[in-house]
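[Meeting: bench + compute handoff]

Bench side (C.D.) handed over the final construct sequence. Compute side (W.E.) agreed to return the predicted structure before the next meeting so the bench team could plan truncations. Sequence as handed over:
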Amino acid sequence: MVKKIIALLAAIMLLLSACSSATLDGAGKELEDTIANATDADNKYVQMVKGGYRPDDPDTTYEDAFTAFFGTPRWKYFESEDGQDVVEFTGDCTYQDVPVKARIQFLVDEENGTFEASYLAFNEVPQDALTLAALLAKAFEGAEAVGTGEGQGRPSNTTEQILIRQIPTQDVLKMTADEVIAAFGEPEIYAENDSIEYGADSPEWMYFDVSNGNTVASFSANVEEFTLNGQSLKQNFDALVSLMGDNYDSLGAGGYQWIREGICYTFYIPDDTEPYSINVYRIDNDNPIDNDAYLGSEGNYGTYGNLDSALVGRWRSFDGGTLQFDDNGMISSCDFNCWSLVGENPNRVYWETSNGRVSCSAYFDNSDTYTITSPSSEPETEYISFSRNRRHMYQRTTGENGDGIIGTWTSVENSIWSFQFNEDGTGMYNGRYPITWSTYTADDGADAVRYSLIDSTYFDYTVEGDSLVVFLSDSSRVYTKVGN
C-alpha cells in the first residue's frame, strides 16, 4: 500500500477546472456514488487519500475527519478525460444553514506520492478555492466527534444512518438487481425477478428480495454486515438499545423491531445475547405505532386482530412467572406454553382477543433442502426426504409424479406424520398445522423449501384493573400488572 502522505491544503487558490470535465451531472449521481463506494473501497488511490493527513494534525486521517463531519460519506475513483487520477468524495453537510451534498475531488500524483484537493461543489454547484479550504478546515475541527454521531457538519436528516457494507440501507432499497450485483459482487444464487443470495451459511450471508419488478423490496443479512456511526450492530440487546434508541417493538422469540426514517429493521436475538440477522424493508411512514388505533373492536384495521387494551403490558405471578402482551399484537414473554408443539420454540407468537378468550398463533420458521427419488424397484412411486433427517422418507400420496414438491407426502414409518404442499403456497403439516411455503435453490444447488408452520391455541381470561386471571386446560394462574 502506498504510504500515507501529507496533503498541503493551505487556503490558496487552487485550479478549479482541473477536474470539472470529469464532474458528472447530478441526475443519478446518488445511486452511482453508492455503488462506487463499495466497488472502489480497495482502490489504491482511494486508500491513499483516505489514509492521508494534514500537516497540523498527523493523527487524524481524511477518512476519520470526513466520517465524523459528513453524513453518508462515500468515496470513488475515476480517471479524468485528460488522464489524471481523481479520487472523489461525497457527503452531506450544512452550508449557511442549508443541507447540501458536498462533492470534493482530489488530484493524485502517484509518482510523487502526493495529492491535493482541487474541486468542491455543493449540490453540483461549483464553489471557490477559499470555500474548499474553509470546509476542509471545518471538517478536521469536527474529527474529534468520530463515532459519536455529533459531527458538526452533519444535518439531522442524514445522521445515524445504518449501513450495510458502508452503503446506506435506504439506498439499497432503491437498487435494481443489476445494481445490487454491481455493488456487492457476483452472487451465489440469482433468480431473476425473485432473489439474490450471497454466502449461504457463512458470516457474509446476504439475501435480497427482488420480486418487486426486479428491484429490492427487502433484504436480510448477518448482523456482522451492518454498522451505525462506525460501530458494528453485533451487540447484545442493551447495547443495541443504547445505539438504536428505546423506541422499539418486541416481537417475541428474540425478535425486536426498530423503525427509522421510514425503514423497518427487525433483529432476531437468540437467548437475548447477540443478534444473528437483520431484516430490512421500507414502510409507508415512520410514525410510531398508534396503540389506540389497534386496540378494541373499533381499531381492527386487519393488521392485528382485536386487542383488549386492558391486557397490554407486563404481568407477573406470585411465583415469579411473567406474561407480556405487546401493543403490536405479539406475546413477548409467557411462562406457560401458548402453543401445542412439544420440544419446539416458536419464532414469534401473535395474540388477539374475543369474548373473554385470547387466541394465540405461534409461528415456527423452517428451511430444509430436500430430495425426491423413485427407486428402480418402484418407478411409479416417489419419495421425499429432508435435510434434517435424510434417512426418514415420506411417500407421495397425492399429486402426480413429476410435479416436484406439490402434493401430499406421508411418512413411511408413521401415517400421522405428513406434509401437504399446495400450488398456492399454502399447506398442512401432520394434517393439523397450517403452513405457508416457497421453494428456492440452496447454495450447493440442492432443491430447498422454506415454510412457516402456524400453531393456534387459546385460553380464557378475566382482567380487572391490575389483576389478571388466566384459565388453562388444567389450572389457572393469577397475575399482577407490573408495567406497560
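W.E. noted at the follow-up: The helical segments are 29-39, 44-50, 62-69, 129-141, 169-172, 177-184, 237-244, 291-294. C.D. will use this when planning the next construct.
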